[in-house]
Amino acid sequence: MAAHVLFPPNQALIGGDWHTTQATLEVETPSRGEVITRIARSQADDVNDAVQAAKQAFHGQLGDWSSWSARHRSEWLLAFATAIEADHERLAALECADTGKPMAQARGDITACARYFRFYGGAADKLHGETIPFENDFAVMTLREPFGVCAQIIPWNYPAQIFGRCVAAALAAGNAVVLKPAEDACLSVLRLAELAMEKGLPPGVLNVVPGLGQEAGAALSAHPDIDHLSFTGSPDTGTLVAQASALHHVPVTMELGGKSPQLLFADADLDAALPFVVRGIIQNAGQTCSAGSRLLVQREVAEEVLGRLAERFEALSCDAGEADADCGPLINARQKAKLEARLEAAANDGVRTLARGRMAAGAPVQGHFVVPQLLVEVPDGHEVLREELFGPVLAVQVFSDEREALTLANATDFGLCAGIWTRDSGRQFRLAKGIRSGQVFINNYGAAGGIELPFGGIGRSGYGREKGLEGMRSYTRIKTIALMHG
Ligand code: NAI
Ligand code: MG
Fold it and tell me: Do 148 and 235 sit in the same domain of this protein?
């Protein structure tokens, strides 16, 4: 464990104060399987206190949030972005220790977190309603109002980035937030919350209740006083959360992962495409909702592509996050065991591992590592083509023509992202329109995170959009005012 990491409070942030919870949870660093600190284990009472604090903050009974103008919020968010940048190395070290992700990726995540606050800070005072031409004796306008208390349940794979994505957008629109970070990784979130307090965010505007999903998460999603809920995680938990929030008719945004394909045609620039194909699945050890976890390759170039990809996979190495190798560990022993069982079942079904990466010499043996793997000869409809594996495992299928490529691309209940690699502009657009997914990338993949680009799913990948201006709008509701002036 890096000695320079100073841990943020192992408490819940409620109404501007840090609260000690009765029970705590161990925090393990996945790179070494060692306990490095503890976090709060918030219960329903703590969650209720947090929701009440947010409600009071929103209505101006706690602090002066409701009196802040859009410009004031904008200025605070921009100043907070600067504060995150000033704390960059510490936040990155926390993220790296907590998630096991390579240090370079952790640094990139903190940069992205700051960019969310900068983007939404810039947007906060540009959130316009409309005027509507109606009968002549009327003036009609729409206001974009904040919901009030936004509940946010976020996962462990990108804690700092998703904090930025959700919190910056919600605050920019004038909401108060109660955030339940994941039990598996929330140190960067706690430090960010501490920084927000240091930077003068009024008490109760941001509350953070670390704890277990079935305790703090369930209490938050079922709470009668929340006004909006955004969830990022697994489809099964998403169903539970949506059911709970439906009890009180709370609108929800669901970001539930994917099984995103990259389509590689024979006319593509292979030199440009292959690094993206590898990075699309290796980044964060494949624990990315938008991971490009399926490669569909056209028959004419399949042999060449597989040969070149095999070389690249064999060159990939895994090590502790701090060692900054290509790939870090998975988040915990459970995720590792789940992935290994699926890979074993696939091998029994005849799926062949064409190439695999390796452990770096001296990598800690207790880390939850699974080396990158390239799977070929996968039977149509096999589990590894349908289920999110959440590991550095790329499944390859070969297609003959555009029609077959589209059929294979859409042969999933998920629909988050897709990559299309071809020089044929007609095909680029035909496929971009035909693919069922929330984002389509042509001759690139991921657009470097794309803070400005609306993001979200279709089908089992969820609904609602985050990121970009659309993400901020989804933290508002429309009020229509019709004035009859006679
Ligand atoms: P999860 O969906 O159970 O956890 C996500 C968040 O939901 C965490 O904060 C957790 O504490 C909370 N949660 C869990 N149960 C809850 C409940 N009953 N009520 C309210 N909140 C609850 O995901 P988990 O178990 O950590 O990972 C399992 C799989 O989920 C992964 O293998 C992956 O396929 C998928 N996943 C997808 C993510 C994405 O970015 N879309 C992120 C994390 C996981
Ligand atoms: Mg879980």
Answer: yes
CATH at 60 = 3.40.605.10
For residues 86 and 159, membership in a common domain is answered with yes
Out of 109, 221, 232, 237, give the residue to mutate to test ligand 1, the one with the largest number of ligand atoms within 8 Å of its CB. 237
Q: 235 and 280, same structural domain?
A: no
216 and 129 within one domain: yes
422 close to 377: Cβ distance less than 8 angstroms: no
Q: Is residue 431 part of a domain?
A: yes
Instruction: Give the 3-state secondary structure percentages of the chain, helix then strand then coil, rounded to 5.
Output: 40, 20, 35
Residue whose CA is at the smallest distance from ligand 1 atom 16: 213
Active-site entry in 113, 289, 327, 417: 289
207 near 149, Cβ under 8 Å? no
Q: Average the pLDDT over each of 237-251, 397-411, 443-457 and give the range with the smallest value.
A: 443-457
Q: Over 50: is that where the pLDDT of 3 sits?
A: no
Q: Are residues 220 and 357 in the same domain?
A: no
What distance in angstroms lies between residue 39's CA and the mean position of ligand 2's atoms? 17
Which is the closest atom of ligand 1 to the Cα of 221?
Answer: 20
Q: What is the pLDDT of residues 336-346, one digit of tens each?
A: 999 999 999 99
| Residue nearest (by alpha carbon) to ligand 1 atom 19 | 218
Q: Decide whether any atom of ligand 1 lies within 6 Å of the 155 Cβ.
A: yes
456 lines ligand 1 (CB under 6 A): no
User: Which residues are paired to 38 by β-bridges?
Assistant: 26
Per the structure block, which two tokens stand in for 130? 């409309």
Q: Is the pTM of this model over 0.70?
A: yes
Query: Could you report how far apart the first and last alpha carbons of the chain are, in Å?
Result: 72
